[in-house]
Give the backbone structure.
Amino acid sequence: MHKIAVIGDEGSIMGFRALGVDTYAVATGAEARETLRSTARGQYAIIYVTEGVASDIIDTITEYSHK
């Protein structure tokens, strides 16, 4: 079964937990990159990245947008 993940800072992702979405709180760009890579290898069909975090890891997001 495919799942949905949300990656972002703690304050931005709290509301998604109530919806039953898997959430991943990150504090640094390096942590966000590794979290994105690990969730992309998992059973996630959709991975949302908050705007604040996305601006720090746009290169990694671009890698996955071309696959």
Strands lie at 3-8, 22-25, 44-49. The mean pLDDT is 93. The CA atoms of residues 15 and 21 lie 9 Å apart. The first strand starts at residue 3 and ends at 8.
